[in-house]
Amino acid sequence: MTSAKKSIPHLEKTANSKQFIVNGKPFLILGAELQNSSMTSAAYMSTVWQKLANTNINTVLGCVTWEDIEPIEGQFDFSELEQVILGAREHGLHLVLLWFGSFKNGVSTYAPAWVKKDVKRFPRAHFRKAGGLLETADVLSIFHEEALKADTKAFSALMRHVREFDEAHSTVIMVQVENEIGLLGDSRDGSSTANKRFSESVPTPLVQHLSTKWDTLHADLKENLQQFKRLGKSSGSWEVVFGKSQQTDELFMAYHYAIYVEKVAAAGKHEYALPFYTNVWQNYIDGDIAFPVTVAGGGGPGEYPSGGAVSNVLDIWQAFASSLDFIAPDIYFNDYTTSCAKYRHLNQPLFIPEQRRDEYGARRIWKAFGSYQAIGTSPFGIDTLEPATNPFTRHYGLLGSVKYIVLEAHRNPGSSIGFFFDELLPDGRDPSAPTIAQFGDFEVTIERCFVFGKPDAGAGMLIHLGDAKFLLIGWGFQAVFKSVSPKSTFTGILKFEEKIVDKKGNLSKGRILNGDETRSGAFCMMPNEEPDYGGFPICVTIPARTMIAEVEVYSLEEDSDDL
């Protein structure tokens, strides 16, 4: 990599992932996404910049729409965007630009009027209805060249202008290419041009990739390729090679969407090689909480955008949209931990560009950063919340204070783990199981923090500092250590110290916590700010203060004569 490329934001390879580098240093995105159209108005943004900064956010995700920058074909207007960039820069915030070009949430509502109205030049996709009828969709067809050429031209102009206007400042650090791509309403485009392409031979590079990379394919994709393996066809139409099913439709759309986005992204990257990604409206197959399938996005292609980079087709996107640096999952309804694991596929970095903005969602970011080396997270719709009541103010505040420590842990795979504990269910049952992990010579069990009254929710992460030392970050949990040596007869806490962190991430000693704070040596307690004493007259559980503590444990091995 040339020195010129190193000067702009980029991804740097680590032992099992990549780390985001901004201004020459590792960077943790404490992000938040605006409501859909907020960033189309610099005047509106002037009312929210300070609020965003006060929420401990360091990166704002917001749209740049095709209709806004090219209202008349060939005439580009970046004046509004320039004012937005200046506003972010003035408040010390970075930007991730979301390119709402041909596609936004499975439709084309942000394309310019001159594109929407010219169906001859820019044909639409068509839904297949009962009786062989076709319905015109509110989305551009990917099987015609004009939309692709126009989108590519506009995106190239955008990236060229961002480079000219901002390269010296790196206010803009990353770009999302399109948004929640796919066909919403049918498993594939039923137009005559799409049908013709569907009946043609499957592109040889796709068949070769699926065959030669079989052992490394995502398990969810392999599940959808059972007919491909059984049929053993290396050439023929899509249904000859993959069988007749909605999954074949999805494979067809995924390949062609990936090719479309690759051409747009490659052209943009030629102008300004910032990190690029696209985001995913996931298929609802492993729900975190109970929602009707139709509300959560559906369980079949077309109920969620068919052809988008869900885990069923993730390898196809990774292979054929290679100008994207990673694929990013939006996590609202799916199990958070499962989604994190799925989108670390082939060691790609994890970034969550959209997620829940409530306390329930905020707790889960610790799992992303602690267990899956996430480069960033981003709750959606942040500009309508106030810092004082926004849960991310608290979570990002703590996480931001230890960001350098977390980033260092990310360079050492297996040195950290994240966790969260949700509120008890109405019937008193605990929905959150303990987290158990092994670091070096010790097994640690992380569980909800003990109180005499009602246990509260909690979240945080544990970082192994080496040997028998560990850093605990967060609240509402406790850690119990046990030596894994079969000769060990006792594992104890040698030292438990509260830590204070300065602005540079340096830790200094606070209080020594070897008394009630360990339940007399039983475990290390990281309480909430207001523990429930349940009427017990002695306040043995101290309220959380810095929410950072270092513990050193030890193990004894006694001879039989000592027992």
Describe the structure concisely for a colleague.
The protein is built from 19 helices and 23 strands. The protein has 563 residues and is an alpha/beta fold.
Distance between the termini: 62 Å
> Roughly how many Å is the radius of gyration?
26 Å
The largest pleated sheet is described as: 8 strands, parallel
How many separate domains make up the residues?
2
User: What fold name goes in the CATH topology slot of the largest domain?
Assistant: TIM Barrel
Level-1 CATH class name of the largest domain: Alpha Beta
Strand count: 23
Summarize this structure as a short list of keywords or feature phrases.
563 residues, alpha/beta, Chondroitinase Ac, Chain A, domain 3, 8-stranded parallel beta sheet, 19 helices, 26% strand, disordered N terminus
Task: Describe the overall structure.
- This protein is an alpha/beta fold.
- 29% of the residues lie in helices and 26% in strands.
- The protein has 19 helices and 23 strands.
- The strands form five sheets. An eight-stranded parallel beta sheet has the order 11-10-9-6-5-4-13-12. It has a six-stranded antiparallel beta sheet with strand order 14-17-18-23-20-21. Strands 15-16-19-22 form a four-stranded antiparallel beta sheet, with no helix packed on it.
- The longest helix is centred in the middle third of the chain and has 26 residues, at 246-271.
- The relative contact order is 0.10.
- The model is unreliable at 1-5 (pLDDT under 50).
- InterPro entries: DUF5597, GH, Glyco_hydro_42_N.
